Amino acid sequence: MGAHSFNGIAKDLKAGKYAPVYFFAGEEPFYAQQLLQLIEKGILNESERNFNQTILYAKETNMIQILEEAKRFPMMSERIVVVVKEAQYLKATDWELLVSYLEQPQPSTVLAFGYMHKKLDKRSKVGKAIKANTVFLESDPLRDYQVIPWLEKELGAKGFRCSSNVVATMAEQVGTDLSRLHKEVEKLDVAMGDRRDLSADDIERHIGISKDYNNFELVAAIAERNTAKAFKIVHYFSKNPKEHPVQMITGILFNFVNNLLQYRSMKGKPEKFIASALKIHPYFLKQFAQASRHYSGTQALIMLEELLIFDRKCKGVIPSSANEYEHLREWLIKCVL
To answer: Kind and range of the H or E element at 48?
Structure first.
């Protein structure tokens, strides 16, 4: 059967087109969880599930028991549904039994595996058999530059209208965790009622991301060399350390300075080329254009060197009596002031 797309599988499931075996794998669990939920909730009605649907957890079972369930005949229903969660915990010997089942699966059964947070070894005999004889989907985590387009699509599907700045703030603060991003969009959908024009105030009110004091605004302040604003944001962070850990801020600053150096080296190239090379959303190009006017190449290199020192101080490699946020202020004084 080979590899399939999330949208294609979801469309078939909603249309009542079912395959005998599904296998959802990969380091990004969001799509697997969504599809398993469609299988759990969408194939059988509530009365049919009592006798014809089984949810198993791999830590508590083995392939013999799984296949015993899969080989049962339905009772007062067209199908048996068997969902195996956390399938990555099954033993190697279990998978050999599945290969035999895949040669002649029970036609009245829908058997689905969620192989979470891990890639399947598709070079092995078992991996090849699974990929060839199941509806197979393997999902990788989103890259940073893919988050904004993904979030724009999710918000658009709910009918939301908002600026790129609002989307960028959400993406920067929540990160690449698709399950969390999806939950935040669902939360907004409920909280906003019929209103579909989404503002920074709405994000602050319903998600808890400050419109003025967040990582996105800190980077923007540094890019425009607005030291007063940058110091205010860092002061706010120091009062709310759980929501704004320095380790996360350090990673964001490293990424910003590295991209600034690369941006400066590509001056004169088409914007589309630069955005693709930096792996960023085109929206952020104006930020780097602005930063390149405020910082020379030499200054950007100093920013990077001082970030390395700042990181070592935070990790205790370089002894210091100051706390992490004081180190961050020190970096701002040396590089941005």
So the answer is: helix 46-52
